[in-house]
């Protein structure tokens, strides 16, 4: 196979460069086998780390085709591009992790006296176990959008903080430490989970849990506490400024022509109170595809902003109200067009009905292809859709069916999630600036997405028109 390897000699090179090698390895060989072959047959100076060769030590973490992996467990393929993690480079594939190690090194348990009676229960052990799976490969560190632009102490530090916070024998204030090291800077993008060889869910099992403890002490950010107050008082996370979507539309909206299916619509706060037109456009898209839409008027905020920021006391009541609203409507499937709402309903709720994103549902039941729309378009993956719901292909399938030119781009957080935009607007803007550069590289005239928060933020940081996919589809139908 042909492989390309990023090389860097600090004594000779200003920046890394790529060299190509033609290697012969056994079928099913791992990337580490390829690196061994290059070192043994072509260049003994090739620098890379390895130790256990069994996916347990984390030392051989690198990027293959842009994705962090363990070289000892990733199968090698013809044409692979092998690079170091996105950390300071020492030589070739060897990165400098001393700064990261220094942040973790001081996080040691400090036990109280053995006579304190602080026993560890079986339940606590089970809760701690997933947080102990870390093999310190630092893939999460190299991929974290918040760490790249802010004082966020890296995902695995938050993992260790929560591990120690759960242990009753530890006597240090882990909540105060976590806040000081950027607890509220995490955007909940779940990129760390995506790249983690052990799939440790740091946002849910560490960050959100630490934020809950911070909230109990009254240490939440003022902007987050104000949002929680608004939800508890009004049932919505967006202040009312005009007639809402739910006040404007009837309970049942019939399709044009024969009824092919019936579905419920979970509207979400942004589409109900701020971007009503996108929700109205989605209704028209369903009407033109023969789908009846039921819209229960007693639905409220899904609770996502509260869960993500740790202010979750009121969430059980929101869940009960929303589940009852759609059960009473008699629907077996509910669609969302907000990535955050969809992820929350799927992951945090236990619903007796199915929840589907609008693109997921349309691709399943089939849709009438709209007339081609002129222009060059790119698609932004909302984190709560891509990693929260595993949806990536469907939006692209829809877009490719009716836009004149589609230019894809890699997924990257825009900075609007996890309460960061309201709590740390400068950090959100910095992450957004990185995304803006990626958008500019596509040469697109328009950005398409399915998250109202991403839509607002991307419009501000890129200066380009940002369209909801439902609005774009309706333009094609009207044309």
| Top CATH class of the largest domain | Alpha Beta
Using only C-alpha atoms, the radius of gyration works out to: 24 Å
- Shape from CA axes? globular
The helix content, as a percent range, equals 40-55%
As for the CATH topology of the largest domain, it is: Rossmann fold
Measured between the Cα atoms of the first and last residue, the distance is 49 Å
Number of domains: 4
Regions with little confidence, pLDDT below 50 for 5+ residues: none
Oligomer: single chain
Tell me how many strands there are: 16
Q: Strand sequence of the main sheet, in spatial order? A: 2-1-5-3-4
Question: What amount of the residues lies in strands?
Answer: 5-15%
How would you briefly describe this protein structure?
The chain is of the alpha/beta class. The protein is built from 23 helices and 16 strands. Strands 2-1-5-3-4 form a five-stranded mixed β-sheet.
What does this structure look like?
The chain is of the alpha/beta class and about 475 residues long. It has four domains: about 1-95, Ubiquitin-like (UB roll) (Roll), CATH 3.10.20.30; about 100-110 and about 120-215, Alpha-helical ferredoxin (Fumarate Reductase Iron-sulfur Protein, Chain B, domain 2, Orthogonal Bundle), CATH 1.10.1060.10; about 245-365, 3-Layer(aba) Sandwich (Rossmann fold); about 370-479, 3-Layer(aba) Sandwich (Rossmann fold), CATH 3.40.50. Helices cover about 45% and strands about 15% of the residues. It contains 23 helices and 16 strands. The protein has helices at about 30-40, 100-105, 120-130, 140-145, 145-150, 155-165, 175-180, 190-195, 200-215, 220-235, 245-250, 270-275, 275-290, 305-310, 315-330, 340-345, 360-365, 385-390, 395-400, 420-425, 425-440, 450-460, 470-479; strands at about 1-5, 15-20, 60-65, 65-70, 80-85, 90, 95, 250-255, 260-265, 290-295, 335, 355, 375-380, 405, 445-450, 465-470. The strands form four sheets. The chain has a five-stranded mixed sheet. Helix 6 runs antiparallel to helix 7. The longest helix has 18 residues, at about 425-440. The model has no long low-confidence stretch (mean pLDDT about 95).
């Amino acid at each position: 196979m042909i492989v390309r390897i990023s090389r860097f000699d600090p004594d000779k090179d200003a920046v890394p460069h790529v060299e190509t090698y033609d290697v012969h390895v056994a079928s099913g060989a791992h990337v580490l086998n390829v690196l061994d072959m290059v070192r043994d047959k072509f260049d003994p100076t090739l620098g890379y780390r390895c130790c256990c060769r069994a996916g347990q030590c984390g030392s051989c973490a690198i990027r293959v085709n842009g994705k962090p992996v363990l070289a000892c467990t990733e199968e090698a393929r013809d044409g692979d591009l092998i690079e170091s993690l996105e950390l300071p480079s020492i030589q070739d594939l060897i990165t400098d992790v001393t700064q990261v190690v220094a942040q973790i090194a001081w996080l040691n348990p400090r036990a109280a006296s053995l006579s304190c009676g602080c026993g560890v229960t079986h339940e606590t052990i089970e809760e701690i176990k997933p947080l102990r799976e870390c093999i310190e490969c630092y893939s999460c560190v190299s991929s974290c959008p918040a760490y790249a632009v802010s004082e966020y102490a890296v995902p695995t530090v938050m993992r260790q903080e929560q591990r120690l916070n759960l242990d009753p024998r530890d006597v240090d204030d882990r909540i105060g430490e976590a806040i000081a090291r950027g607890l509220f800077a995490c955007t909940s993008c779940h990129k760390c989970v995506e790249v983690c060889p052990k799939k440790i869910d740091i946002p849910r099992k560490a960050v959100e849990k630490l934020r809950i403890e911070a909230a109990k002490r009254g240490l939440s950010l003022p902007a987050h506490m104000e949002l929680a107050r608004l939800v508890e008082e009004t049932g919505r996370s967006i202040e009312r400024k005009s007639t809402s979507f739910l006040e404007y539309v009837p309970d049942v909206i019939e399709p044009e022509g024969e009824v092919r299916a019936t579905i419920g619509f979970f509207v979400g706060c942004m589409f109900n109170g701020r971007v009503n037109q996108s929700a109205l456009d989605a209704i028209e898209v369903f009407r033109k595809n023969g789908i009846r839409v039921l819209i229960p008027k007693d639905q409220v905020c899904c609770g996502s902003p509260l869960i993500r920021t740790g202010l979750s006391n009121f969430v059980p009541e929101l869940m009960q109200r929303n589940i009852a609203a759609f059960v009473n409507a008699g629907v077996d499937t509910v669609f969302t067009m907000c990535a955050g709402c969809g992820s929350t309903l799927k992951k945090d709720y236990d619903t007796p009905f199915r929840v589907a994103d609008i693109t997921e549902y349309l691709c399943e039941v089939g849709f009438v292809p709209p007339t081609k729309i002129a222009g060059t378009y790119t698609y932004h993956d909302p984190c709560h859709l891509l990693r929260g719901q595993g949806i990536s292909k469907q939006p692209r399938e829809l877009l490719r069916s009716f836009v004149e030119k589609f230019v894809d781009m890699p997924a990257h957080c825009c900075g609007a999630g996890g309460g960061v935009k309201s709590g740390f607007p400068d950090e959100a803007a910095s992450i957004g600036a990185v995304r803006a550069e990626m958008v500019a590289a596509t040469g697109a005239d328009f950005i398409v997405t399915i998250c109202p928060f991403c839509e607002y933020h991307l419009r501000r940081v890129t200066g380009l028109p940002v369209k909801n996919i439902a609005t774009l589809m309706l333009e094609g139908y009207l044309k």
